[in-house]
Specification:
Protein name: Chaperone protein HtpG
Radius of gyration: 36 Å
Subunit structure: Homodimer.
Shape: elongated
CATH architecture of the largest domain: 2-Layer Sandwich
Number of domains: 4
Number of helices: 21
CATH class of the largest domain: Alpha Beta
Main location: cytoplasm
Distance between the termini: 112 Å
Largest sheet: 8 strands, mixed
CATH superfamily of the largest domain: Histidine kinase-like ATPase, C-terminal domain
Family: Belongs to the heat shock protein 90 family.
Strand content: 15-25%
Keywords: ATP-binding, Chaperone, Cytoplasm, Nucleotide-binding, Stress response
Strand order of the largest sheet: 5-4-3-6-2-1-7-8
């Protein structure tokens, strides 16, 4: 029979479809199995309304047959089959979808067609240099053979086939230096591909598998008898067919969920939380998600790849679809299965699919609610989770200019100096005295050191709590949020600001105390100017402190960049010049201040310069900053001891 040309398609178009849409050659088997499942769906649907079909759901199957000698792999189904016209229409035109037409003509919501002849079928040419399709349509007396060796065209001729259905015979390419095509004829290779991509196809996918067994022992058995083994083949179902995520939660035990998680995601520990989500409406999907109980070893490295396994009606599309998870929930593992996604779709097209955005938004809300439920109902487990992944949530609140802060703020935990435990921001606010003006915090490298900061001690002496922040992202997180909701004395909705104990007005002093500090600063202007000059630009200002009780000196920051932020940013490449505007604050009631005053009044500029340097170095040590000149500081201290 004369060869026919593809309708309006060329070799270039076929090459583009094969090489760009599918990056993994093994995907061909997923496509052809999905097409077979599709064909069975059609006949099964017909059997529900036409008793003459004479087949039940248990009668359907997909059969894989491999022949290493002839290098063929055959995918057979006993579905609805195709007429000559359908073969020519579905296989003669790239990207034509017979399944799409069937779905369009049948509005029943229970019809779930997952495969589509067209682009998916042509993935076979990634691994085969010739493809033969023999099909007999249900209700027809004729069978037809379609055959093609590539984009040059195809042949269509009558064939012999006893029953309805379709056989797709792939003539597998020989191995090359870069491609191992033999894997697609290997028993274990085929089983692995089926388990990976098509484990949840609803019909049994079967293949003859080679096995061994011990031969029956003779009776009587000789004294020197040794067991003998024989090889045999057995038809085996390769797929499990029923996805655990499609079962009702009441039908699955916690142990079954845990075992599925550990097996699927190669974890040794049970998950901290199982999240089951099902939605119908604008976004139709089933999701089974897991919050791990510990972070992967590479979680905070560039090698970590986030994403959920994405299925289209039980058929794997992508192993890790990053678009389904926001970065701050990147620790979540799991599976999403949607019947609204096209199976024949490239990664690039998938990223633009509006359905993904709808699922992403729904999952984001679900995960947030589940974490909040864990926080409220199982505090110990949540705090264990927080130790592993809390940093990621804080980064989420800070990133994108605080765009997600409102979503995440009630999940955040910080160490309370007063409570001596982790608290939420809401718990802090609930215990604030009515007169407290700010949510106070101190940022540094250890809770013990922060609790001893002069300003922190002063705040706590007033009966107020201080949040002690020890991670580099903490202060950035609170500063980007700026405020937290708090009802006022009349019960009206309002907000309260976050305040670093080492920056700005802490709102602790009375008007009389403020006035006294201003007067003392004015009265000692000459002294403070001399100390500022002695420190040669290291501080923006020297002034009287209202935040010191027993300590002689402290450093504070004037402006939006705190001292702790400076320390964090200075570690970043290219940020060496980032400096906060530091203020040296003095306690006028401390004996040291009288010594400074006496030196200034006596005109002893050398002593004033030396003492200014000493006090600045002490203030640096209190703040956890490196001393500018440790040797000079040590020498100055020693000179005082002589």
């Amino acid at each position: 029979m004369a060869k026919k040309e593809f309708q309006a398609e060329s070799k270039k178009l076929m090459d583009m479809m094969i090489n760009s849409i599918y990056t993994n050659k093994e995907i061909f088997l997923r496509e052809l199995i999905s097409n077979a499942s599709d064909a069975i769906d059609k006949l099964y649907y017909k059997s529900l309304t036409d008793t003459s079909v004479g087949m039940n759901k248990g009668d359907f199957r997909i059969l894989l047959t491999r022949d290493k000698d002839s290098r063929t792999l055959t995918i057979s189904d006993n579905g609805i089959g195709m007429t000559r016209e359908e073969l020519e229409q579905n296989l003669g035109t790239i990207a034509h979808s017979g399944s799409f037409d069937f779905k369009k003509d049948n509005k029943d919501e229970n019809i779930d067609i997952i495969g589509q002849f067209g682009v998916g079928f042509y993935s076979a040419f990634m691994v085969a240099d010739k493809v033969t399709v023999i099909s007999k349509a249900y209700g027809s007396d004729e069978a037809w053979q379609w055959e093609s060796s590539g984009a040059d065209g195809y042949e269509l001729e009558p064939a012999e086939k006893e029953t309805a259905g379709t056989d797709i015979i792939l003539h597998i390419k020989p191995d090359t230096e870069t491609d191992n095509y033999d894997n697609f004829l290997d028993e274990y290779g085929i089983v692995a591909i089926v388990k990976k991509y098509s484990d949840y196809v609803r019909y049994p996918i079967q293949m003859e598998r080679e096995k061994s067994r011990q031969k029956p022992e003779p009776d009587p058995k000789p004294d020197d008898y040794k067991p003998e083994w024989e090889t045999y083949t057995e038809l085996e179902t390769l797929n499990s067919m029923v996805p655990i995520w499609k079962k009702q939660k009441s039908e699955v035990t916690d142990e079954e969920y845990a075992n599925f998680y550990k097996d699927k995601f190669s974890d040794y520990a049970d998950p901290a939380r199982v999240i089951v989500s099902r939605t119908e409406g604008t976004a139709n999907y089933n999701a089974l998600l897991f919050v791990p109980s510990h972070r992967p070893y590479d979680f905070y490295t560039k090698d970590y790849e986030k994403g959920l396994a994405l299925y289209a009606s039980g058929v794997l599309i992508m192993e890790k679809c990053a678009d389904l998870l926001p970065d701050y929930f990147s620790f979540v593992k799991g599976i999403v299965d949607s019947q609204d996604l096209s199976l024949n779709i490239s990664r690039e097209m998938l990223q633009k699919d509006n359905q993904l955005k709808l699922i992403h938004n729904a999952l984001e809300k679900k995960i947030k609610n589940e974490l909040h439920a864990m926080l409220a109902n199982d505090r110990e487990k949540y705090e264990s989770f927080w130790k592993e992944f809390g940093r990621q949530l804080k980064f989420g609140a800070y990133s994108d200019y605080g765009m997600h802060a409102e979503l995440l703020r009630d999940l955040l935990l910080f160490w309370s100096a007063k409570e001596q435990k982790m608290v939420t921001l809401q718990e802090y606010v609930d215990k604030m005295p009515a007169e407290q003006k700010y949510i106070y915090f101190a940022a540094g490298d250890s809770t013990d050191r922060l609790a001893k900061l002069p300003a922190a001690e002063l705040v706590m002496d007033k009966g107020y709590d201080v949040l002690l922040l020890t991670e580099d992202v903490d202060e950035f997180c609170l500063q980007i949020m700026r405020t937290y909701p708090r009802k006022d004395a009349e019960g009206k909705d309002g907000t309260v600001e976050f305040k670093n104990v080492n920056s700005g007005d802490l709102g602790l002093e009375t008007e009389d105390e403020k006035k006294a500090a201003e007067e003392a600063t004015t009265a000692n202007k000459a002294l403070f100017d001399a100390m500022k000059d002695a420190l040669d630009g290291k501080v923006k200002e020297v002034r009287v402190s209202t935040r010191l009780k027993d300590h002689p000196v402290c450093l504070s920051a004037d402006g939006p960049l705190s001292i702790e932020m400076e320390k964090v940013l200075s570690k970043q490449p290219g940020s060496e010049g980032v400096k906060s505007d530091k203020v040296l604050e003095l306690n006028v009631n401390h004996p040291v201040f009288a010594v400074l005053k006496a030196a200034q009044e006596a005109g002893d500029t050398e002593k004033l310069k030396k003492y200014s340097a000493l006090l600045y170095a002490q203030a640096q040590l209190i703040e956890g900053l490196p001393v500018d000149d440790p040797a000079a500081y040590a020498e100055a201290v020693c000179s005082l001891m002589q």
